[in-house]
From TrEMBL:
It is an enzyme of class 6 (ligase). Its EC number is 6.1.1.2. GO terms for biological process: tryptophanyl-tRNA aminoacylation. InterPro entries: aa-tRNA-synth_I_CS (IPR001412), aa-tRNA-synth_Ic (IPR002305), Rossmann-like_a/b/a_fold (IPR014729), Trp-tRNA-ligase (IPR002306), Trp-tRNA_synthetase (IPR050203). This is Tryptophan--tRNA ligase. The keyword Aminoacyl-tRNA synthetase applies. It comes from Thermodesulfobacterium geofontis.
Length: 331
């Protein structure tokens, strides 16, 4: 490989939101300029939580791909593909699952957190418990050296590194690399209620929300609860959830001005959030315009070419892994 290879994916479980845009996609855009990037639609991973209602996954996959193109991901700069089109991911997952101790999966903090927070779905399934193994297969099948992750995903990547080490140790080879994390500068974007922005929590501003919907959601953001009246001094840096979004959409000088005016009770929360909504809508309008362009392009052909590129690499890896495990080529 002439360039360092980077891999990441997204589950098609619904529309993208500002958390995806600032926490993931803007990072991906920078990475595709300097690395060999593989980005995939993780539709098998979507089944871990949507197995009872899988009929929307195909449509969500299409929407996800179009939104990727709309924010600027390029098939000319990155390999963009869909997971289920590469059956080798499932084969490598199966081979890995033969030697992964169950306690490795049960100690995963994200697994425990989602079991606690998502009460409307039965997540006590093998697929949900074992999805970090499939995630490891997704990464290692392309021998990715770097993986962009948020802080909450680091334990998953560490499990991938452990799986790579265990494979290399068991079969006495130096075959799989141990991928390193690329931590996103913006790891968690707060939702309307202050928790991490998430479709599951119902607190997100989506990229395809209409302008009036964006305005309504921004106005519902939690601000300084100790600031009862506009004449009360505020503390945006320590007590305002909406301030986390302000830091993303304003220049440093503008942020300093907002802090000063809030602390001096010159700028009220309502007016501040109105201005913030306008800033967000202005950026989203560029994505909406690009989306209209992409719908006119042959996006299926773009996706198919990415699948071809990914499949060739994945097939070679699985062939080699089978030879390593069984010590010979069986067929």
């Amino acid at each position: 490989m002439s360039k360092i290879r980077v891999l990441s994916g997204m589950r098609p479980t619904g529309p993208l939101h500002l958390g995806h845009l600032h926490g993931v996609l803007k990072n991906w855009l920078e990475l595709q300029e300097k690395y060999e990037c593989f980005y995939f639609i993780a539709d098998w991973h979507a089944l871990t939580t949507e197995y009872e209602n899988p009929e929307n996954i195909s449509e969500f996959s299409k929407e996800l791909f179009l939104e990727w193109l709309s924010v600027g991901l390029s098939p000319q700069k990155s390999t963009l593909f869909i997971q289920s089109a590469i059956k080798e991911h499932a084969e490598l997952h199966l081979l890995f699952s033969m030697f992964i101790p169950v306690p490795w999966l049960e100690r995963n903090p994200s697994y425990k957190e989602m079991l606690q927070n998502i009460q409307n779905k039965d997540l006590n399934t093998y697929g949900f418990l074992g999805y970090p193994v499939l995630q490891a297969a997704d990464i290692l099948i392309y021998k990715a050296q770097k993986v962009p992750v948020g802080v909450d995903q680091v334990p998953h990547l560490e499990l991938t590194r452990e799986i790579a080490r265990r494979f290399n140790f068991l079969y006495r080879v130096n075959y799989f690399p141990e991928p390193e994390p690329i931590l996103s500068e913006v790891s968690k974007i707060p939702g309307i209620d202050g928790r991490k922005m998430s479709k599951s929590y119902g607190n997100a501003i989506f990229l395809n929300d209409l302008p009036e919907v964006v305005k309504e959601k921004v106005m519902n953001y939690v601000t300084d609860i100790q600031r009862i009246k506009k004449s009360d001094p505020g503390d945006p840096e320590n007590r305002c959830v909406a301030f986390n979004l302000i830091k993303l959409y304003y220049s440093n000088e503008e942020i300093k001005e907002i802090i000063r005016d809030c602390k001096n009770a010159v700028l009220g929360c309502v007016e501040c959030k109105k201005r913030l909504a306008d800033k967000i809508i202005s950026e989203l309008e560029k994505i909406w315009d690009k989306r209209l362009e992409m719908e006119k392009e042959d996006w299926k052909e773009m996706l198919y070419k990415g699948v071809e590129t990914a499949r060739e690499i994945a097939h070679q890896t699985v062939e080699e892994v089978n030879i390593i495990i069984f010590r010979k080529k069986l067929i």
